[in-house]
Design brief:
Elements lengths: L1 E7 L7 H10 L3 E7 L2 H7 L5 E5 L9 H13 L4 E6 L7 H6 L2 E3 L8 H20 L6
Parallel strand pairs: 1-2, 1-4, 3-4, 3-5
C-alpha cells in the first residue's frame, strides 16, 4: 500500500524539510503532491484508491491510538493507495467532496493547508510507530 498526501494550493517549502524527515522514517511509502485546483487533483486520482478528505467537520476526531487502529484497517483493506486530501483555502469543491470515501478531522480548529499537511504526515508516522510498537508515541 502507498499513502498519497495531496493538497490543493501553491507549494511552499517552509515545512518541506520536516515533511521529508517524517517520510524518510515511514515504513509505508508515502508521497506528497500539490495541485493547482480540485479539478486537477480529481483527474489525477488513481483508480481503486480510498480517498480520505480532511475536514474540521468530520466526526469523531480520533486519538492517535484510534487513528493508528484505523490506519491498520486501511492497510488490511487490500487497496493499493490511500489518498489523503487537504483542500485549499476555501475548502473542497462539491465534486471533490463527493469523490471522498471517508472524511478525517485532525482538529476542530482550521489550519492553513500547509500546516494541516505537516500535521497529517506526522500523525501518519506516529500511527505507524504505534502499530510497529516503536517508542515514538508516549
Amino acid at each position: 500500500m502507498k499513502f498519497l498526501v495531496w493538497s490543493v494550493g501553491r507549494e511552499r517549502s517552509e515545512y518541506a524539510p520536516m515533511e521529508q524527515e517524517y517520510l524518510r522514517r515511514m515504513s509505508v511509502t508515502t508521497e506528497i503532491r500539490s495541485f493547482e485546483n480540485d479539478s486537477r487533483l480529481i483527474k489525477a486520482l488513481p483508480a481503486h484508491s480510498t480517498v480520505v478528505l480532511l475536514t474540521e467537520h468530520a466526526k469523531p476526531q480520533p486519538s492517535s491510538e484510534k487513528f493508528a487502529t484505523w490506519i491498520q484497517q486501511l492497510l488490511n483493506s487490500g487497496r493499493k493507495n490511500v489518498v489523503f486530501v487537504v483542500a485549499g483555502a476555501f475548502g473542497p469543491s462539491k465534486e471533490l467532496s463527493s469523490r471522498a470515501d471517508q472524511t478525517l478531522s485532525l482538529s476542530p480548529l482550521t489550519f492553513p493547508h500547509r500546516i494541516a499537511r505537516l500535521v497529517l504526515v506526522e500523525q501518519l508516522y506516529r500511527a505507524l510507530t504505534i502499530l510497529d510498537g516503536r517508542p515514538y508515541h508516549h
